[in-house]
């Protein structure tokens, strides 16, 4: 037998073992390689050792005493050493295969029959030496036997390579599935955390419940901690924004922020780490101007209003364009946000815009129409000027802020050009 | 014992702020809103809250009128009322106590101070 063949086979099987140490196929192949190595030692050394324990999984056939080898194989086989009691050959029936793992390819059964008494829990018929070696001493294998063994090793190597490939594919598939599952679980935990942290730090019991949820979702502890911190700071920042929008109603903004810091259990270190972001929130509160918001739903809670206030705008509400026309002189808004449709009898948003265009004082006031999807083409074809625009409902607040800034900038440019 | 608090306040921002502070106080209080004195009287009789925060300047019926009504009604006279007002003159404070208020709280508010005050009245 060539040394390199054993070495190659062992290298491949060790690779497979690293991927899945408990895999029964791997164990079976390893057993078989150990067996061949033992055979090799038997051929090489004259040491006398106790007889092998046959049929024990994982057992390595120990070296046995063999006659010294001659340069050429003897023409006639030397007399064999007394054999141990013959082991009755067991008909080889491959044990039932274990449930196939997802992604794993079926390992083809060896064309050769397995050894007599099962030496491993291998569910496949593992290639083996042509003859069971259960004798304590044996002559050197004949060239035909050697050839058969080499062929067996080749077949084993091929199967091991296939197995390694399958295991690698399976590992990749599992990792992908795990990552997808983790993402989904993290989203679920984030949602629960945001709900729990909405009004400040959750109680100890709620905290324990959230931790149990994270564990049940198999979210690693470091991910859970980082997510909790992220949610906490986000909720604190949102609360700071709300307070800023109402700071004129508070005796002291700083003591309120300090109270909020305690409510959200934000440590001073965390506060300092995120101070820039919090300061930007504070800057966002600077008065940016007055918005005249003309909406048929002024009575119902419109989340646009608090967001506009939080962004630093004073907001004046009107239920329809007629009411807006009454207020406009007094309010002198910097920008108008107007829905397109109002109750029958009222002006539409577009007519309101045309009316303002005809008024010298309000001719150039930035104006944004909030329209339905179906009205977009009509508005695209109408000749809106640079300081006029439209946004589709439901309005995305970030898009609204960008559009407002853009229209206000046009207005500033226009005013500057007058001087 | 219920933990209902009736807030009579006509200014939406003030109502939102009290609600914001109470939600974060972890007092477990339920806030009932009235936008004027008349609504406050009706809702106090309907809900029998543990505490009333009453703005003194409101449309329809102000606090100065609503409080004597509540204190004259056997169903509501036991409910402590905190005058919640921007009027911070000493004589205003004296006057609110004279008409039956348990406390006088001057706006603008301080969240921690307000919570401490409310907690005092919600304690069993």
Strand numbers in spatial order across the main sheet of chain A: 2-1-3-4-5
Oligomer: heterodimer
Overall body shape of chain B: globular
Class from helix and strand fractions of chain A: alpha/beta
**CATH class term of chain B:** Alpha Beta
Q: Report, as a whole number of angstroms, the end-to-end distance of chain A.
A: 100 Å
Tell me the radius of gyration of chain A.
41 Å
Low-pLDDT regions of chain A? 47-135
Overall tally of structural domains of chain B: 1
Low-confidence stretches of chain B: none
**CATH architecture tag of chain B:** 3-Layer(aba) Sandwich
What features would you describe in this structure?
The complex is a heterodimer of chains A (419) and B (124). With 419 residues, chain A is of the alpha/beta class. Chain A has 3 domains: 3-65 and 104-172, no CATH class; 198-281, no CATH class; 287-418, Rossmann fold (3-Layer(aba) Sandwich). Chain A contains 13 helices and 5 strands. In chain A, strands 2-1-3-4-5 form a 5-stranded parallel β-sheet, sandwiched between helices. The termini of chain A are far apart. Chain B contains 5 helices and 5 strands; from the N terminus they run βαβαβαβαβα. Chain B has 124 residues and is α/β, with parallel strands linked by helices. In chain B, strands 2-1-3-4-5 form a 5-stranded parallel β-sheet, with helices on both faces. The radius of gyration of chain B is 13 Å and the shape is globular. Chain B has helices at residues 12-23, 37-47, 63-72, 90-98, 111-122, and strands at residues 4-8, 30-34, 51-54, 81-85, 103-106. The longest helix of chain B is centred in the first third of the chain and has 12 residues, at 12-23. Chain B has a single domain, classed as 3-Layer(aba) Sandwich (Rossmann fold). Chains A and B meet through α5 and α6 of A and α1 and α5 of B.
């Amino acid at each position: 037998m060539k040394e390199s063949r054993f070495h190659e086979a062992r290298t491949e099987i060790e690779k497979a073992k690293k991927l899945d140490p408990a895999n029964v196929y791997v164990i079976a192949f390893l057993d078989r390689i150990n067996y061949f190595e033992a055979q090799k030692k038997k051929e090489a050394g004259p040491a006398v050792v106790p007889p092998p324990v046959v049929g024990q999984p994982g057992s390595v056939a120990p070296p046995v005493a063999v006659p010294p080898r001659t340069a050429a194989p003897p023409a006639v086989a030397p007399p064999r050493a007394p054999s141990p009691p013959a082991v009755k050959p067991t008909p080889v029936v491959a044990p039932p295969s274990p449930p196939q793992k997802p992604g794993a390819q079926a390992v083809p059964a060896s064309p050769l029959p397995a050894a007599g008494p099962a030496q491993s829990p291998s569910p496949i018929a593992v290639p083996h030496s042509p003859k069971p070696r259960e004798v304590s001493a044996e002559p050197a294998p004949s060239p035909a036997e050697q050839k058969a063994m080499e062929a067996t090793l080749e077949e084993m190597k091929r199967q091991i390579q296939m197995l390694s490939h399958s295991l690698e594919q399976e590992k990749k598939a599992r990792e992908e599935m795990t990552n997808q599952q983790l993402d989904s679980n993290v989203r679920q935990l984030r949602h629960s955390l945001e709900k729990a942290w909405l009004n400040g730090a959750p109680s100890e019991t709620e905290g324990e419940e959230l931790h149990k949820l994270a564990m049940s979702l198999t979210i690693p502890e470091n991910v859970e901690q980082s997510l909790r911190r992220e949610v906490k700071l986000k909720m604190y920042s949102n609360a700071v924004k709300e307070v800023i929008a109402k700071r004129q109603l508070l005796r002291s903004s700083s003591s309120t922020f300090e109270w909020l810091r305690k409510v959200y259990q934000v440590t001073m270190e965390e506060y300092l780490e995120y101070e820039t972001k919090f300061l930007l929130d504070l800057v966002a509160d600077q008065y940016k101007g007055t918005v005249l918001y003309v909406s048929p739903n002024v009575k119902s809670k419109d989340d646009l209003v608090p967001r506009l206030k939080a962004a630093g705008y004073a907001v004046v509400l009107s239920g329809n364009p007629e009411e807006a026309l009454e207020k406009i002189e007094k309010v002198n808004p910097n920008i108008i946000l107007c829905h397109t449709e109002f109750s029958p009898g009222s002006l539409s948003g577009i007519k309101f815009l045309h009316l303002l265009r005809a008024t010298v004082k309000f001719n150039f006031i930035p104006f944004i129409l909030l329209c339905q999807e179906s009205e977009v083409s009509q508005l695209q074809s109408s000749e809106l000027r640079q300081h006029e625009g439209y946004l589709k409902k439901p309005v995305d607040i970030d898009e609204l802020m960008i559009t407002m800034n853009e229209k206000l900038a046009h207005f500033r440019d226009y005013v500057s050009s007058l001087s | 014992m219920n933990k209902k608090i009736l807030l009579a306040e006509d200014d939406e921002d003030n109502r939102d702020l009290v609600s914001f502070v109470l939600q974060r106080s972890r007092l477990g209080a339920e806030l009932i809103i009235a936008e004027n004195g008349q609504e406050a009287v009706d809702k106090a009789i309907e809900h029998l809250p543990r505490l009333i925060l009453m703005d003194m300047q409101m449309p329809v019926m102000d606090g100065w009128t609503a409080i004597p009504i509540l204190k004259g009604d056997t169903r509501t006279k036991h409910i402590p009322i905190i005058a919640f007002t921007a009027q911070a003159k000493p004589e205003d404070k004296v006057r609110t106590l004279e008409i039956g208020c348990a406390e006088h709280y001057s706006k603008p508010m301080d969240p921690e101070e307000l919570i401490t005050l409310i907690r005092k009245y919600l304690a069993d």
